[in-house]
Amino acid sequence: MMIFVNDLPGIFYCQKIKTYCIIGWFFSNKMSLTGLIITLMSLDFINE
């Protein structure tokens, strides 16, 4: 399942991330910069 998140910095391709993608999307819509950081941190955490 691939989720397309349309945000100010660009488009996030969240694949096989599930909850972290949703959290990043939520915060990105509320606070773009904070959401971007959280999304990047979530992606880095999942990649480990």
Automatic annotation (TrEMBL):
Alphabetically ordered keywords of this record: Membrane, Transmembrane, Transmembrane helix
Keyword Transmembrane helix set for record: yes
Species: Marinomonas primoryensis
Name under which the protein is recorded: Putative membrane protein
Parts of the chain that traverse the membrane: 20-43
Domain of life of the source: Bacteria
